[in-house]
Amino acid sequence: MKVHPTAILLGDVHLEEDVEIGPFCLLEGSIRIGKGTKLGARVSIKGRVQIGENCKIYDGVIIGEEPQHLKYQGEDTEVIIGNRVLIREYATIHRGTPFGIGKTIIEDDVMLMAYTHVAHDCVVKRGAIMANCATLGGHVEVGEYAFIGGLSAVHQWARVGDYAMVGGVSGVSLDVPPFTRASGQHAHLYGINTVGLERRGFSKETINILKKAYRIIFRSSLLRKEAIEKVLSEFPDSPEVKKLVEFLQSSKRGVARDVGRG
Asked: Does the residue 121 lie in any domain?
């Protein structure tokens, strides 16, 4: 364990073996940091924060600051960060609220690039990537291995599904379904995220099934309910189609439209 002499540790701070704390860091609160995690210079961690193993947190990052919510009154909420998470320069992660889930969660193998912001009560799932200056409003859920492009913003309560891709400089106000591509000031769908799925090892057969299901749901003249019934009957053995349908049926904000129907 290496703690730079200029670092300040206040409160109940527990550091496991091989943790490194860089110069001028401030750790204040009930903080747990797993083995092998490294903090650069001027990192600030406040409140109740749990960070997993082998994470790398770069200069100027702020974790666990109070949420930017007018109703927050200092309640005991937290940030939970998994293992092997990369958090680049000046990213900010705020803790949860008592009127949300009470915590902000960053799962394993996530990468948050420079100047990203994860607001209160967000859940960023395993393997997701947020590019530079991407921003999440409160209560947002980002699915496994999703990608959010630089300078994009996701509206509070919206969801980005598993393996979805949001292009740069986009505004996401409605849910982006899993396996799809979305882009635009008011983000619309542009079909299946073929390249992303190929990179994650999905077979050509699975990708083709998803493309057919997408066309039925988003580009046919069928009502949404009829389209869902049709894809479930045509592809009853596809777990990916079931995941897509479940996402659509559980949407509370509504689902982004295909660009042809915008």
From this structure: yes
